[in-house]
Amino acid sequence: NRLVQQRTQAANRLHSVLHRHNVDPPPGTPFAVHQREWWLTLDLPRAEKLRVQQDLSLYQTLETLIQESDAELGRLSRL
Description:
Blueprint: H1 2-20, H2 36-40, H3 46-77
Helix pairs in contact: 1-3
C-alpha cells in the first residue's frame, strides 16, 4: 500500500506540473518509460525540469517495485 501511495504522489506532482504550465499530457500512458523523452523536452524552468526528472525516475522505480511485490504475493498465495 505504501508503494502505491508513493507512486500516486509522484504522479500527482507530475500532473500538477502540466496543470501549472497549461500543458496537455502526452498521448497514451503519461508515465510510461517511452514517454520520458516527451517529459524531458518540456520547456520548463531548470528547477522544475529537475523535479520532473526525479519524479519520473521515482514513479518508474516504484512501478517496478510494485510489480515485483505483486508477483511475490501471487507466488506466496499459491503455496
